[in-house]
Design brief:
α3 runs parallel beside α6. About 40% of the residues lie in helices and about 25% in strands. A hairpin with a 2-residue loop joins β4 and β5. A six-stranded mixed beta sheet has the order 6-7-8-3-9-10, sandwiched between helices. The chain has a domain of about 160 residues: P-loop containing nucleotide triphosphate hydrolases (Rossmann fold, 3-Layer(aba) Sandwich). The protein contains ten helices and ten strands. The longest helix is centred in the last third of the chain and has 16 residues. By secondary structure, the protein is an alpha/beta fold.
């Protein structure tokens, strides 16, 4: 479905990605885990063409996305819920969702999709009139995910959805991710909470200093000694 081949990205003289290769299969949850600064967010930004690629390719169902504009990539069916939520604080919940559908011209479609988002996130429906900046961290994360889903993405990319949330809210967010997947969405998940991510992932990749150093089924990586020691805080 989505294939990344030999992708290189640099910021000035710093190499963020050093020839990574990833494959995202349809209707799967794929997770990318690694330490801060390892290149996880750079991978998602490169897929969306938000950062310039030095070399390498990104292909989606046989179509080369490497040099497409971000808006055109969204129109192809790929959406990103960014790290840090990035909601528009002075706009209401509903206005944020409407902005998420900026590539869609059908008002009835937008209204119908918003109803689906409210069904998935009842808390957002209760606060549809409220300014996003006054929401709790968990509610803002729900809004960020809902906003990305407004374009009916075939691949939903989530960058650190549980970052900064209380443990109970982390569970809620992961339950929502599983429900989104059950509805037929393919998910590429970046997470500091490696244990939670690998528990729900069909497949996972471990990235270190811009290179993929390990890959395999989620449960296999969860039981890997190196992963357990480095990312789960468990000794052998």
């Amino acid at each position: 479905m989505l294939t990344i081949n030999d992708l290189h990205v640099s910021y000035g003289g710093i190499k963020a990605l050093r020839g990574i290769n990833l494959k995202i299969e349809e209707n799967k949850i794929v997770t990318l885990i690694g330490a801060n600064g390892a290149g996880k967010s750079s991978t998602l930004r490169a897929i969306m063409n938000l950062v310039k690629k030095q070399s390498g390719t990104v292909e989606y169902n046989g179509t080369d996305l490497t040099n497409l504009k971000t808006m055109d990539i969204v129109k192809k069916g790929i959406a990103l819920s960014p790290e840090g939520r990035r909601v528009f604080p002075n706009l209401t919940v509903e206005e944020n969702l409407i902005l998420g559908a900026y590539t869609i011209n059908d008002k009835e479609d937008i209204k119908r999709t918003m109803g689906e988002i409210y069904n998935l996130f009842p808390r957002l429906k209760e606060r549809s009139w409220q300014k996003a900046g006054t929401l709790s961290g968990g509610e803002q994360q729900m809004l960020a995910v809902g906003r990305a889903m407004m374009v009916h993405p075939k691949i939903l990319m989530l960058d650190e959805p549980s970052l900064g949330l209380a443990p109970l809210l982390v569970k809620d967010i992961f339950d929502i991710i599983k429900e989104i997947h059950r509805q037929g969405n393919t998910i590429l998940l970046i997470e500091q909470n490696a244990k939670k991510a690998l528990e729900i992932a069909d497949y996972g990749y471990v990235i270190e200093t811009g290179s993929i150093v390990l890959e395999g089924e989620g449960k296999s990586l969860l039981n890997n000694d190196k992963v357990r020691e480095a990312y789960l805080g468990e000794s052998r």
